[in-house]
Fold this protein.
Amino acid sequence: MSVITISRGSFSGGKHLAECLAKRLGYRCVDRDVIVEKAAASGVSQKELRDAIQKPPTFLERFTHKKYLYLTLIQAALTEEMRTGKAVYHGNAGHLLLSGGAPIVRTRIIAPMSYRIKMARTRLRLSEPEAIEYIDQMDQDRRKWTQYLYGVDWSDPALYDVVLNLEYITIPEACETISTLVKSQASHEFGPDCQAVMDNLALASRVRAKLALEPETSHLEFEVSADGGSVRLHGKLSSMDLMPAVERIALAVPGVKEVNLEEVAPMPEV
């Protein structure tokens, strides 16, 4: 019951590959819009959520808290959706947002520019120069986004288990290659240990999202890890008087049994 993530440039065939894999393996096919819709259920704008996972921040936005909030909600929605396995996700940086979870099949698909231009012109009704400009801008934004948030090059093959080029193979052939890998690799099966890891990641993400949404703690940023029902927080507080609120809010998340705040400290004085 693996989880498969598909990373791709715009109009590189990622959606078609995801649909083929889901049908062949009997998995759910999940795209970015599904995750954005679930994340927006907390009351935030779907448009702003999409921008948060598509566009790199401007210079001024790097000094705001909003990006943290949106990505926290996206990660919580994605980990919850992927938690039980048997799913294919095609969306921006799924393999990075799920980092720390159970083993996933991290796939990257690339395609010749001629293929991408043709797809863009057909779907968006663009001229060839407009299609080229659109694709170049999207690729540049994704590269800047992953570099800013994760310090990695989005196109680095070391980030993936499988990289397939559609120059000489078809989508069905790529689908067969990946599905064969998934079926033959026991390391990607969702046994009890893998399920526990995914449950921990989902719980930690829920706690992080809850803290980001509550008025008392919405201005704070935390790293959160979970082990069973035990949750550990790492971060800075604007006032140590907030410690009881942080603990109370985290404990209110279903599944949390205890909260460790040993790595929560006051912000340094300016």
